[in-house]
Amino acid sequence: MLNHQNLTRKQEDLYFQLKGSIWNGRSISNILKAVSKNDLLKVLITGYTTRFPRSGGRTLTLLSLAIHRNNNECVNSILEQAKNNGILQEIINTENIIHYKDDRSYNLTSLGFAIYENKERYVNAIFVKAQESGILQDILAARNIIKLNIISYALTPLSFSIYKGNNECINYILEQAQNNGMLQGVFVAEDIATRPLSCLTYIFTPLSFAVYQNNKECFNAILTIAKNNGILQDILNNRTYTLTLLGLAIYRNSSENEYVNSILMQAQNSDTLQEVLVAKNIVYSPIGWTYSLTSLGFAIHEGNHAHINSILIQAQNSGILQDILANHNAIISPTGQTYSLTPLGIAIHKGNIECINSIIVRINDIPQYIYATFQPTAAINKRNARSALDDVSISPKRVRLQENSRTF
Q1: Among residues 35, 70, 102, which one ends one of the domains?
Q2: Is there a single domain that holds both residue 258 and residue 306?
Q3: How far is the C-alpha of 139 from the C-alpha of 90, rounded, in Å?
Q4: How far from the centroid of its chain's Cα atoms is residue 234's Cα?
Q5: Range 383-388 contact pairs with CB under 8 angstroms and sequence separation of 24 or more
Q6: In terms of domain of life, where is this protein from (predicted)?
Q7: How far is CA 236 from the centre of its chain?
């Protein structure tokens, strides 16, 4: 977003002419038609700040100002001219900022602002023009940022509607996504919540976010429309995550190791590597399983061998490998059974032969008693565990197979 001081004198005069017309309910159609594309873009991504009487304020683009003032003609004129000039996506997705004295703040797209103000007709107007311009999918993926004292959210329009409890907008977004063949993309889009003090990140889908917000109507609507469109199983297969910073780096960087290595190195240099590596990441499956995993356990769960090896190497270099390999991960079934597994147990449970080999190679020099700490089976029996070990580079006879530690 630009400030009006970033504009040329000509653009600034145009901006204030448009702002005055929008504020006073006058037409701006003819003004916009005479403006060049460059000038139009500059004035439409410029924000104007209005202070609240006590504290805080809002900074809105001209499109969001027109939405706020309920000026139908101005909203439609801005959308139409932005579409005609090929700048509609930039105009809709330019952030609008609302800040309150209690440090709550919202950074919203114009679609998010229309949802925030519960103005469905402008949500509809934005959808129509976005569809005509072929950018609807991008608009539906744009995030709206909510910052509260202890938690922040980055939400797609659907999940922001869930957050606001705006069921009219929820139903409209679902209807439009269905009509445009975008349901699955909308349903698997990731929403993010972060708690800075605890350094935890939560990753939701709209369905799990509806559960988080206790919006039963939206939850049922998503399930129904997913079932009717034959994508229910895909939706139910999505997971919800609560991740540490290292867990988030593992999750986000499936093909790159830069962030993971940087976090590991900083933790080692500050003598906090063991604490970082044993901090738990939580994965909730839609069928009721819960996984409480160390960073190594989570990397094994995600099947990322580069991250697995980075953790093993860093732990070995720091002299804490034995402790890390002995640390247990919890898997809780829908019926409440708790399985306690070491990293080797997770690797066997996942059938990850490469990871099994990576661990076995590194424990060859550790005293024999460490083998007694491994409980390598989860929802698999001894026979399956032995089968998994048939392909690894150590004789199964050297591994002492035990029953899982279970809590009922």
Answers
A1: 102
A2: yes
A3: 10
A4: 18
A5: 385/348, 388/348, 388/351, 388/353, 388/356
A6: Bacteria
A7: 17
Which single residue is written with the structure tokens 């093909």? 255
- In the chain, what's the furthest Cα-to-Cα distance? 85
In a domain, 80, yes or no: yes
Cα angle value 107/110/113 (rounded, 5°): 65
Q: Is residue 129 part of a domain?
A: no
**What gap in Å lies between CA 109 and CA 128, rounded to an integer?**
16
Residue 179 lies in a domain: yes
* Token code pair at residue 87: 């700048």
CB atoms near residue 49 (< 10 Å) = 12
Tokens of 153: 């959210």
Is 37 a member of any domain? Answer: yes
**Which residue range is the domain that position 38 belongs to?**
1-102
Q: Are residues 371 and 396 in the same domain?
A: yes
- In tens digits, the chain (408 residues) has pLDDT values of 777 788 999 999 999 999 999 999 999 999 999 999 999 999 999 999 999 888 899 999 999 999 999 999 999 999 999 999 999 999 999 999 999 988 899 999 999 999 999 999 999 999 999 999 999 999 999 999 999 989 999 999 999 999 999 999 999 999 999 999 999 999 989 999 998 887 889 999 999 999 889 999 999 999 999 999 998 888 887 888 999 989 989 988 766 678 899 999 999 998 999 999 999 999 988 778 899 999 999 999 988 899 999 999 999 999 998 889 888 899 998 888 888 888 888 888 888 889 888 888 877 555 543 454 444 443 443 444 444 444 444 444 333 333 334 443
* 312 alpha carbon, distance to own chain's centre: 27
Domain count, the chain: 3
Rounded CA separation 83/88 (Å): 5
Chain centroid to Cα 291, Å, comes to 19
Report the residue count for the chain: 408
Per the structure block, which two tokens stand in for 203? 């990753």
Phi (first) and psi of residue 175, to 5 degrees: -65, -45
Bridging pattern class, strands 338-341 and 329-332? antiparallel
